[in-house]
Amino acid sequence: MSDHLRSSAWFVGDDEVAILHRVALRNSGIDGPLERRPMIGILTSATELNPCNLPLGELADEVAEGVREAGGIGVRLPVMSLGEDLMKPTAMLYRNLLSIEVEEYLRTYPIDGVVLLANCDKSVPGAIMGAASANLPAIVVTGGARPVAAFRGRRVGTGTDLWRAWEDHRTGRLDDEGWAEFERCLSCGVGACNTMGTASSMAIVSEALGLSLPGTSVIPTGDPARTAAARDSGRRIVEMVAEGLVPSTVLTDMAFRNAARVLHAIGGSTNAIIHLLAMAGRTACTLTLDEIGALGRGIPVLADVEPSGAGLIQDFHAAGGVPALMTLIADHLELDAITVTGRTWSKEIPASFPGGAALRDPADPLHTDGAFAVVRGTLAPDGAVLKTSAATPALFRHTGPAVVFTSYDDMRTRIDSPNLDVTADSVLVLVGAGPVAVPGMPEWGMIPIPAKLASIGVRDMVRVTDARMSGTSFGTCFLHVAPEAAIGGPLCLVRDGDLITVDVAGGRLDLDVDVEVLERRRREWVAPVSEHLRGWPALYQSHVMQADFGCDLDFLRAPTEAHRRFVPPVVGRS
Ligand code: FES
């Protein structure tokens, strides 16, 4: 390694400042020649509060060993652990904070490259957003999916089967004893959700973007191949530093378009659409919500994994994972996009792969024309998203009267009331759950089917909301309506009984109410008063953008050239 290392600004020299810096590391037990060895940050966030990220602790050790083998110095960068299960109101509130943490770590310390260890939903995009803004060499290592649970002889996928079992329990098809037994079955170990939830979707998106070593994103937790991948990534990041391979070289428009196409082909999480827009917003790329929708045209949904399909992530991995999927849709991809290997995808996709039931043949896809629809209209001027691959086609063109819930608490209080004025044709509407409202845009969008309808066999209804939903969720839920109700989007004007029309083929989501009536309602509308917030939630609420811009903070987008060319000043003691 030569003096071109960024960390040389700290360690090369014989003045008192360079000595101070070298001594600081030796005090941490890092010895030997420091001056010309790349300093590699290893992002860590393992905690018992986040079992999805718990495998990252051991993987960090493997990464460190790989870095050492390649001649670098690995240093841990402990960051906030974003766990979707336990953080309230939602880990999404903190994705941008994690990105700031990562960016500022990389900016202020003598780091030459970084390995982004992340797993649970928001931790992957948050880490990538920070690294993209800092633009130092970066490689992503995910932790894999947890083992598969079983209940009464059948496999249980994380999330998706819980929502189904809850539906069975609240409508009497699963008794109290069975419900308690089901809970005991769910504890099956550490790792990410093993369905095509947001974590798996983002791991796959990361690989498709070119940020992970090809073939590594869906290796299950505990598989020796994952350990090897972590070590390989540690070795590779040292090479990337020498090559000067930075995120802005990998994260091109081609890479984002490829990732969006792959997201369609896996029937991925709707959350990944928001994350793609946010990640692109940290680069010079121009990806838009409408483009993501349009990129699904002609793409077959091939990953037969819950909630769009029947298998689990382990099955998808066994069938060949992302490289196999990319081979099958190669005609739709831009294979000149580069990956962290330094090679283009044209050199990385395999000529053959194992195959299996979880990876459909393009001639027999789960769905055609992608997994998502983007709709606009009088109810969603800036767009809304439907996961078509996990919805009911018979509801793709529908008009029905609205049943409005003004908050999550309102919905939970009334949804199962026998007095709720609702039929199977109604359109369930949840407002006040967008990025500004809560704040953070929780995953409340899969509004439960009212008990009085579920008990007579209604399995799906049209639902409309400014919330998100879990990647493990399903149903005809029009999500991410923008602008949200809390900032005066048309959703705030909907009243019980108003007719709402959805037309997926036509790309429309409309409120069928006279303009004069809506104008009167708008004059009467009073913006919700936010409860007094302080600290991060207050900052977030003041600066968060809507879903069509990825819910990033306005001051974090579009890095300046000054950021990109950041060179540490001659550092001294202050
Ligand atoms: Fe963490 Fe699903 S809740 S990966």
Task: Describe the structure in your own words.
- The structure is a single chain.
- The chain is an alpha/beta fold.
- The protein contains 21 helices and 14 strands.
- It has an eight-stranded mixed β-sheet. The chain has a four-stranded parallel β-sheet with strand order 2-1-3-4, sandwiched between helices. A two-stranded antiparallel ribbon has the order 5-6.
- The protein starts with 7 loop residues before the first helix and ends in a 10-residue tail after the last helix.
- The C terminus is likely disordered.
- Bound molecules: FE2/S2 (inorganic) cluster.
- The site of FE2/S2 (inorganic) cluster has 10 residues, from loops.
- FE2/S2 (inorganic) cluster binds next to loops.
Helical content (DSSP H or I, runs of 4+): 25-40%
Count of beta strands: 14
Provide the residue-averaged pLDDT.
94
Largest β-sheet summary:
8 strands, mixed
Distance between the termini: 30 Å
**Order of strands across the biggest sheet?**
7-8-12-11-10-9-13-14
Bound molecules: FE2/S2 (inorganic) cluster
Unreliable stretches covering 5 or more consecutive residues:
562-574
